[in-house]
Amino acid sequence: MNKPSKKRVLRTKSDQRADSIEQILDAAEYLFSKSGLHGVSLRDVAKQVGIHTTLVHYYFKDKQNLFESVFARRAAVSSEGRMEALEKYEAEAGDKPTVEGALRAFLDTDLDLYVQRGEYWMNYAAFCARVSNTPEGAVLMDVHFDPVVLKLLSIIKRALPDHSDADIFWGYHFVTGALMNTYARTGRIDRLSGGLCRSDDFAAVKQRMAKFMAAGFLALDKRPDKAQ
Fold this sequence. Notes:
The chain contains 10 helices and no strands. The chain is mainly α.
């Protein structure tokens, strides 16, 4: 995981203010990705940036406010990009959407962000992976990502009209679990594969994940869920 190291050229006071906020958000994102909300203090963030803690308090009311700001900053870009891709795919597919097509719009669009935008987005991916299974992270996932997830599921339901709603939701549950494990970049696959696979190789993930997950949806029992 990379430590923030941007070099910035400052201009006006407004630029300096925006730069200070960005540096604080970058540092907090990095630290939260490593230790979560409760493992990081505002003093830790200030130390990471090289400023006094009072300046962090000046821009952010408290740690919760900073945490939510870190989450929201890139969530809007991720969610809007996915929604645009899903809507485009839905229009192009017409009456014949496929599970893999919908998943590619949802997964590949997001993976491209991390491949193309570099270390800061990779830190955000790890941040999301770490906090997604916490109460405070789950609330933010609901707020920022529910609309685009429900859009994905509506397309998959049309692609699999004989599948139960329960199967569709379970399928997404398994997809998001694999995605968060990928975003975490723990290095485990590197060790297991003897270096054949790398946990930071999101391009390789993109080549495989949608196809793999689509097969899982298709393999689910098409009859109503007998367990209910």
